[in-house]
């Protein structure tokens, strides 16, 4: 019974961060990773295609409005959002 109780010296020693992170990492199952990663990748594809579709439909109105944000900056914004979501999907699948 006394062998199961850790010494005071062992309790004062802090645990290594790498060990704690390794223990915490095992909470995620494969199915959760696949569903989560697939959701992010699907959202990235939807964002990309629907965003560019809406830009094409409203291109004449955007150009006629004289806004300082033209077509190029709006396309860039859609691409950045889509790439960010795709990166999150890949990260979710691998981590």
Topology:
Blueprint: H1 8-12, H2 17-24, H3 30-57, H4 59-65, H5 71-94
Folded structure, characterized:
With 95 residues, the chain is an all-alpha fold. It has a domain at 30-95. It is 76% helix and 0% strand. It has five helices and no strands. It has helices spanning 8-12, 17-24, 30-57, 59-65, 71-94. α3 packs antiparallel against α5 (71-94). It is elongated. The chain starts with 7 loop residues before the first helix and ends with a helix. The mean pLDDT is 88. This is Distal membrane-arm assembly complex protein 1-like domain-containing protein. The chain crosses the membrane at residues 76-94.
Q: Structural class of the helix and strand makeup?
A: mainly alpha
Portion in strands: under 5%
Number of strands: 0
Let me know the largest β-sheet.
none
Q: How many helical elements? A: 5
Average pLDDT taken over every residue = 88
Shape: elongated
**Low-pLDDT sequence parts:** none
Tell me the Rg in angstroms.
Answer: 24 Å
Q: What pattern of helices and strands is seen along the backbone?
A: HHHHH
Span of the ends, CA to CA: 40 Å
Query: What percentage of residues falls in helices of 4 or more residues?
Result: over 70%
Domain Distal membrane-arm assembly complex protein 1-like: 28-58
Organism: Chaetomium thermophilum (strain DSM 1495 / CBS 144.50 / IMI 039719)
InterPro entries: DMAC1-like_dom (IPR028036), Mitochondrial_unc_protein (IPR053092)
Protein name: Distal membrane-arm assembly complex protein 1-like domain-containing protein
């Amino acid at each position: 019974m006394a062998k199961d109780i850790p010494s005071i010296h062992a309790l004062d020693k802090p645990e290594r961060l790498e060990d704690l992170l390794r223990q915490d990492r095992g909470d995620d199952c494969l199915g959760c990773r696949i569903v989560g990663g697939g959701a992010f990748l699907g959202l990235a594809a939807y964002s990309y295609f629907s965003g560019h579709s809406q830009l094409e439909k409203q291109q004449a109105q955007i150009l006629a409005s004289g806004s300082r944000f033209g077509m190029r900056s709006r396309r860039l914004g859609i691409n950045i959002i889509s790439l960010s979501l795709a990166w999150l999907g890949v990260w979710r699948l691998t981590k």
